[in-house]
Structures are given as C-alpha cells and as structure tokens.
Amino acid sequence: MGELKPVQPAAWREGRPILGRDQVYVMKYGREFHTQWCQAVADKWASAPRGLLVTLLADVGTRARCQQCSRAAPAARERPTRGRHSPEPAAAASVIPLRVVGIAHGILYLAARPEFRELLSETAVEPATPLLVGSKRDGMVVRVDVSRDEPLLVVQMDPRASFRDVPYQARLRAPLQRSATKPYAVESIEPAPREPDS
Description:
By secondary structure, the protein is mainly beta. It folds into two domains: 11-82, no CATH class; 95-191, no CATH class. Helices cover 13% and strands 36% of the residues. The strands form three sheets. Strands 9-14-13-7-8-12-11-10 form an eight-stranded mixed sheet. Strands 5-3-4-6 form a four-stranded mixed sheet. Strands 1-2 form a two-stranded antiparallel sheet. A hairpin with a 2-residue loop joins strand 10 (130-133) and strand 11. The protein is elongated.
C-alpha cells in the first residue's frame, strides 16, 4: 500500500478535517483513497475518527480511488451539459455572502445576492445544518427559498442564542446523504469574517 504520510488538513470545520488542494482522505488500514467526504469517509468518521487520515494525493501509494468518489467525478463533468453544477463547489462559490433581512418569532431570514439564486436552487438543506457563532450552534438552517429575486436562507434560532445583526456567510459542500437529489448541500452558516481595518 505504501507508507502513510499524514499531513495537516487545510482546515477544520465542526471538528472535521477539510481537504485542501492535492489532499485526500485515507483510512489507516484501508486500500482506497477518497477525494471527497463520501459515505465511506462519513461512516469512518462516525465510528473511528482516529483511523481517518489526510495525506497528499502523491503519497497514496498503491491505494485505489474510492468507487463512490470515482462515480462523483464523471457526474461532475456531465452535469454542466444539463445545466447543473458539479457536486464539489469551486472555492469561490463554496462560500455565499448573506445579509440579515429580518427576524421574527425566532426565525432569522438571510438574503443572498441575485447572482447566487441559480446555485442555491441546486442546494439542499440536510438535517442538523447549523448556524455557528464562535463554534457554538445558535440555530438550525431549515430551508432555502429561491422564489424571490434575492434567495433566502431561513434559520430557526436557538431560544438561548442572542441575535447578531452582522453579515453572515453560507458554506456549501457535496451532500452526505446517498438519496440526495441536488449536487450541493448547506454545510453551515456563520458570521462573515470582519474586514481588516485599513
């Protein structure tokens, strides 16, 4: 299989390792490498997270590419011909800026700019998608509404959370559910990073 050379992931999100350029997931005793957070990776993370490692694609040795990841790659190439997006958002498109347009009865309404409407129409909301503030769950994303010119993300706030009227951002990823019918899912919503003072 070749000696494993674990590297630091590009980022951590909700405690999970996020791949960077030329990085892949491998399992300590596995015979495959994984180019995305596929079901096998999700299952390993749920059962034995210490056995899931990140390494460079160049260091996978004789490990084969995961079949589910392989199937997702051709689908990504085919979808644009049908007017759909690939399941792995491009780096620039994987974060969507949002602004607060209202809050009522514990429901927070966040609007995206019109140019993100098509992307959000291809985006699902999976169970337990969080609104994170300082790594604390302040609410749950309940739906995406693309019926308006400015699409909305609707968040059920936690009753104990304090509302913050600040810019937010939505992070997208490939869906984790096998039954997914859309190529994107909302990973989380969080306050947007502050611009550095000039």
